[in-house]
Design brief:
By secondary structure, the chain is α/β, with parallel strands linked by helices. 34% of the residues lie in helices and 15% in strands. The strands form 6 sheets. Strands 2, 3, 4, 5, 6, 7 and 19 form a 7-stranded mixed beta sheet that branches. It is globular and about 80 Å long. The protein binds NADPH dihydro-nicotinamide-adenine-dinucleotide phosphate (NDP).
Length: 597
Amino acid sequence: MEQSSDAEPPSIDELRERYRREQQKRLRPEGMAQWRELNEELDRDPFVAPGFTRDPVVEETTVVIVGGGFAGMLTAIDLAKHGITDVRIIEKAGDFGGTWYWNRYPGCMCDVESYVYLPLLEETGFMPSERYASATEIFEYSKLLARTFDLYPHALFQTDVTGAEWDEEGQRWRVTTSRGDRLSGRFMVLAGGILHKAKMPGIPGIEDFEGKAFHTSRWDYSFTGGSPTEPMNGLADKRVGIIGTGATAVQVVPQIARAAKELFVFQRTPGAVGVRNQQPTDVEWFQSLKPGWQKERIVNFTQAVTGAQPEVDLVADGWTELMWVDTQKAVDPEEAEALERIDFEAMESIRRRVEEIVEDPETAEKLKPYWGKHCKRVCFHDEYLPAFNLPNVHLVDTDGRGVDELTTRGPVVNGVEYPVDLLIYASGFEVTTDLHHRLGFDLKGLGGAALSERWAKGAHTLHGVLASGFPNLLLISLVQGGFGTNFSHLLSESAKHVAHIVETCVEQGIVEIEPEEAAEEEWLSVLHAVGFGGARYFQNCTPSFYNSEQQSIDARAARNLTYSGSLLDYIGYLERWRQAPDFAGVNVLREEVSESE
Ligand code: NDP
């Protein structure tokens, strides 16, 4: 079905068949077991000076927050706005910023518009310099947020939580850390673990490679030279390999292409790359925005990407024009076919873009993605595809198999060894593995039961936030929670919800809060009902972390769902629950008030 640009476009049947073939090639019996963890050396934080020490902290606070990325920061900010400043934030990294702390690879940026992605712009008065902000700017903005809302005194950096246990008698969470801290919080917020745990492909021989290697989220500028904002002058005489062609690789490949002597891009599945159209911020426009503009724009963007078709599309970019999801998830066959056609057309436009940009027709053909637009994360970039026109850039397509093995010198594909000095793993992060595994500790709730035991057959939560068996625990994660293209919209709303629960408990003297199991089952039935159409769609997808590598759905996976409808609908559930007079579906225990009071 290979076609040149003047050939007839493929029919729906041909595309269906092509998608099916591409999916079949990529199904691997080992499913999620294909991934490996980073070893200690590869996982080391390259952005802090070694040898940091401090005295252990022993203290009691109202809230302990695990994670200093946007979720944790926004929760602390919301709490502070309601007078709760008695908060401790524990963070593995050396600063705030979460994903934007770790991902400093050259070219790293956020392809969701900065005016809707960066939270609280109206409150900080910050103007992003470009329409799509660089990771450097977002990391700086995280620090600005922390300074503006006085979060630094609350943070314990370079600290891993090693354990957390609910003290039934004391009605508090007892938290231990890698720095010997003994912390105790009336509430514990888990605001980490979403794109936190980097993963490596389990390629045979991976330990044998003798060159330099690192994961993109641990970029080693001491080897490459340069910095996120300066050219990598250390690569001029180097042969570099990169494994992966997802959202990260799409951003980093053009930068390495510019700096390295040779670049080999090892591809298992082609990414989809639409137009980015980066622009500097129009200062006059930005200054003319009226109070309330950011909330309006954020909601408008989420409406547009969830098929709600707002009257005006304020952002009007690739996400809103190409990637919107019809949340009705059509059940009648005619409507389903119409949506399938729209999906095919969107991906056809992405495939046409490849052949318009990439000069070598064979390379262009290999770079065309044949999968549905929601099967994997579509990317938007203007320099990725042109990089394949450079003489020093070589696409090594593995036809869906992945790199066959690694020798001491480099990757092997189809019997050909590609010796490299540097091998970069743009292999992504764990997303659907067990939450306790991603967090790096297994918390213990009522009766000392571990989260891994309680959730052994799948998660039990109300809205993905409260969990039975774990009083006063508040979760911000994807497990039974919401999902959205603009992730910071989801995190802002989740933080608001979590902060509301804590504030209400403090105000009303509630010492324990825990959802009823019946309410959790009811929430699960909502997740199932809304996930029905999506599950059918994903069945036909190439494997990815969106569908747990197409591993067959067991009873556990059937509970570990994300709310797959519109983010606005998910937010609606949270808002209605907050507005109802009492915490519905939740057991609360109030402080005992002595007779004399
Ligand atoms: P991904 O998981 O999306 O990509 C991993 C890549 O590694 C895939 O291309 C995968 O191929 C490839 N791979 C895995 N094993 C092998 C193998 N054995 N041989 C060859 N290739 C292999 O990770 P990313 O870091 O790119 O992105 C993760 C997430 O981070 C994104 O989905 C997004 O949420 C976020 N992100 C957001 C950005 C933004 O602009 N907002 C920018 C960057 C990341 P295959 O597809 O076949 O599995």
